[in-house]
């Protein structure tokens, strides 16, 4: 069942992203007057085939879903009627051809922006960057980090969630930095900066999931203390006089040991008065709580401080979608450069098996996680296709750059030779990716 779920999620992810990429080529080519003969999602034997439009363009879904293509009118692949020569791809100006080629990756980036924007409108919820156990003599302890501290920023980059902490640290490691400024807040609410020396910690350590082990600290794990986090304006909690940081001691003279116990107690008493004993600034207070009745369950309108939700309006979501797409694009390129210069292990290259596994997992974890994964793969597809490797869109753009410099295209023999080199590189890269996939699968 897990295999079937992973396979279906993989087909959905690849199908969407290939369609978006090829639609970019198709849409721009159509707008610029080039005739489209075929739009194919997948390679090999057609499973679905229909013709549409005045040009009777053939739309195909093929058996092998690892790519796609848009076939345009091209006199190198067949005879072209004289009256249609002006619609032939190679008859177009250099600028038009470049625009058609770059449209595929560009649509992947635009799609990622939209996906991330939707994700931020729904709300990204993650574990707050609150430190749990700290290993004695570890890098974290040497820097002064203690259990219960919340990490607010890494080198002035805000880190509301643990994934933000890891990404910010990774970005700084890519810059070759070894000393990091961790801005923290202790349990009393005091904020200050600590310097962490990460000499000896590598990018591979983070990529292999050893971030917490290397630093010697862990996330705060359940059971969580019943401490009030954010309070919704106008909620039952606000009316009762609760404040962020209040710690629940007892409810109706029954001891409250953790957040789950407190939440369950409230949920079972919609509309009822509850005598709550709380601790605030080392003083004990008694408040009367009356949970609102929401679909038969009690709700106070408070959030646990152990989770953070990042949510924006339409404009804010779109802005953050652009920033997220840019950050992932730059990070992807920088990691590629590190791999080419052998500063990062090639074992982090993933192929279709790993993508299928993560597709299945992200689909199981909910729409926000799935959208995040979809955006990541879309950005990766856009970046990879812009690499100056023959057969990729970036390879075509590189040939157009040579044509622009020379004043005329490269010869067909030269183009064919470069395409063979590109094909060999891509086959080698795919082989390495599948080898890494199988090694992860069986280890």
Automatic annotation (TrEMBL):
It comes from Candidatus Thiomargarita nelsonii. Its main location: membrane. It comes from the Bacteria. Its cofactor is Zn(2+). It is an enzyme of class 3 (hydrolase). It is found in: Membrane. Keywords: Hydrolase, Membrane, Metal-binding, Metalloprotease, Protease, Transmembrane, Transmembrane helix, Zinc. This is Zinc metalloprotease. GO terms for biological process: proteolysis. Belongs to the peptidase M50B family. InterPro entries: PDZ, PDZ_6, PDZ_sf, Pept_M50_Zn, Peptidase_M50. SMART domains: PDZ (SM00228). Its EC number is 3.4.24.-. Residues 200-293 form the PDZ domain. It is a multi-pass membrane protein. It holds the Pfam family Peptidase_M50. One of its GO terms (cellular component) is membrane. The lineage of its organism: Bacteria, Pseudomonadati, Pseudomonadota, Gammaproteobacteria, Thiotrichales. One of its GO terms (molecular function) is metalloendopeptidase activity. The chain crosses the membrane at residues 6-28, 94-118, 365-387, 417-435.
């Amino acid at each position: 069942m897990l295999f079937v779920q992973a396979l279906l999620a993989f087909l959905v992810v690849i199908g969407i992203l290939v369609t978006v990429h090829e639609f970019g080529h198709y849409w721009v080519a159509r707008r610029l007057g080039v005739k489209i003969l075929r739009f194919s999602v997948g390679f090999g034997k057609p499973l679905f085939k229909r013709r549409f439009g005045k040009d009777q363009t053939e739309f195909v879904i093929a058996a092998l879903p690892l790519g796609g293509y848009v076939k345009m009118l091209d006199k190198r692949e067949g005879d072209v009627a004289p009256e249609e020569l002006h619609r032939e791809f190679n008859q177009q100006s250099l600028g038009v051809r470049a625009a058609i080629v770059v449209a595929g990756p560009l649509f992947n980036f635009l799609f990622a922006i939209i996906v991330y924007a939707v994700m931020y409108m729904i709300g990204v919820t993650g574990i707050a960057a609150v430190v749990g156990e700290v290993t004695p003599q570890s890098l974290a302890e040497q820097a002064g980090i203690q259990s219960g501290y919340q990490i607010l920023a890494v080198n002035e980059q805000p880190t509301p969630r643990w994934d933000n902490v890891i990404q910010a640290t990774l970005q700084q490691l890519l810059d070759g930095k070894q000393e990091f400024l961790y801005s923290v807040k202790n349990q009393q609410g005091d904020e200050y900066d600590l310097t962490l020396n990460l000499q000896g910690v590598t990018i591979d350590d983070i990529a292999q999931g050893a971030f917490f082990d290397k630093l010697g600290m862990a996330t705060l794990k359940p059971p969580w203390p019943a401490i009030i986090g954010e309070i919704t304006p106008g909620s039952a909690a606000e009316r009762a006089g609760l404040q962020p940081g209040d710690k629940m001691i007892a409810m109706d003279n029954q001891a409250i040991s953790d957040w789950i116990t407190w939440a369950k107690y409230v949920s079972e008493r919609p509309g009822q008065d509850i005598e709550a004993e709380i601790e605030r600034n080392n003083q004990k207070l008694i408040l009367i709580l009356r949970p609102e009745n929401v679909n038969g369950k009690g709700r106070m309108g408070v959030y646990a401080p152990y989770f953070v939700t990042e949510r924006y309006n339409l404009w804010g979501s779109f802005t953050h979608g652009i920033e997220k797409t840019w950050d992932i694009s730059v990070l992807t390129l920088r990691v590629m450069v590190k791999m080419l210069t052998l500063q990062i292990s090639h074992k982090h290259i993933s192929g279709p098996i790993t993508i299928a596994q993560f597709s299945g997992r992200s689909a199981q974890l909910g729409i926000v996680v799935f959208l995040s994964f979809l955006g990541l793969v879309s950005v990766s597809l856009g970046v990879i296709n812009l690499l100056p490797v023959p057969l990729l869109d970036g390879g075509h753009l590189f040939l157009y750059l040579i044509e622009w410099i020379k004043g005329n295209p490269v010869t067909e023999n030269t183009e064919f030779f470069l395409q063979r080199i590109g094909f060999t590189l891509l086959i080698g890269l795919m082989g390495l990716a599948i080898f890494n996939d199988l090694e992860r699968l069986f280890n």
